[in-house]
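3.2 Worked example (two chains)
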Amino acid sequence: MYVKIISDSTCDLSPELVEKYDIDILPLHIVLGDEEYEDGVTITPDEVYAWSDAHRTTPKTSAVAFDTVVEAFRPYLAEGREIVCFAISEDMSTTANVMRLAAQELEAEDRVFVVDSQNLSTGIGMQVIEAAILAQQEKSGAEIAEAVKQMQPFVRTSFVVDSLTYLHRGGRCSGLAALAGGALRLHPKIIVHNGKMSPGKKYRGKMDRVFMEYAHDLEEGLRSARTDRVFFTHSGCDEETIDAVVEYLKSFDRFSEILVTRAGCVISSHCGANTIGIVYTEQF
């Protein structure tokens, strides 16, 4: 039996991709006041936005529950299978450590390989799909984990936010303090590197033009990227914008797959609505 691939919900893979690659998803938690929900299971991003707008605050999020991870691991270990499990960057959540503790609880540290993705959203998803393909090729858990770790420095994740309000309130992005205040009227590019978020170029103007300028700024990297797939991930944008960016990516006539996904509740609660990101992998 091949290795089982599991990821936390911040990988932002669509239900179709989760089914195609036989991936199990472990939900992080969203806390709205006194109520707690499971990302993508008992709450949607639009419900998160409605609550946040009504209360003028950013929802809190928390790691995957320990018991949930234990019960997710248990049946596969009982079958004698290995597990490769992915978590959002350890600089952003304790989820990876929860997974390690669950493996210890089940006395399966030698069969559960926890991968700190050093990334977020489909920057994780890119790694998860790579792992799933290697699992289908009957690679071992150790081989898969090592291959993905070799891949990590070449995954390029960035996004542009409509407003910094959510990131600023959540305190999730070190280095953004200098962009607060007056810069909240701008649309900054956020770059993920070595598991941390940092500010990049600041765009001005209407968001439809900003999105296309951002996409064009990535042209050099996209032209030399790996050709297997590219992700376009958004946190709720109009169809016209989505279509325009997808057509731009198609114009390269390079990628075997252009995968459009919508960010889940955890990522959306920290970046806010109308955010887009393009994720690709450099050749390595």
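3.2.1 Second chain
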Amino acid sequence: MKTILYIGIGSFVGGISRYFLSSLIQLKFKSAFPFGTMFVNIIGCFFIGIVYGWATTGNLSTGCRLFLTTGLLGGFTTFSAFSFEIVAMLQNNEFISAGLYLIISVLVGISFTFLGLTIMKAL
């Protein structure tokens, strides 16, 4: 139960942080291009690399790692987890799996977003 609480609190803080930071950046650029979301995704990737690097030293408890990765950074951006998983596959020489995961996630994800929008417009 403690683990669920750690993840939940982290997700709450991460989600709110994502909203405020991406909104602030988007206002600064005053553009239709999603600079805010792009920046949040990139910074989330940087920090998940730091956290997983820290975890490999053995100096980070499981609860703290879950709070930071699944909770805080998961709430901040799931793109960081996606990026880490691809990097982990590449480091394990799982090049075909990494490529398939990348291509399928992006193409199928975009396709399903379009499909969901199309279905809702048809209703």
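3.3 Remarks
The mean pLDDT is 93.
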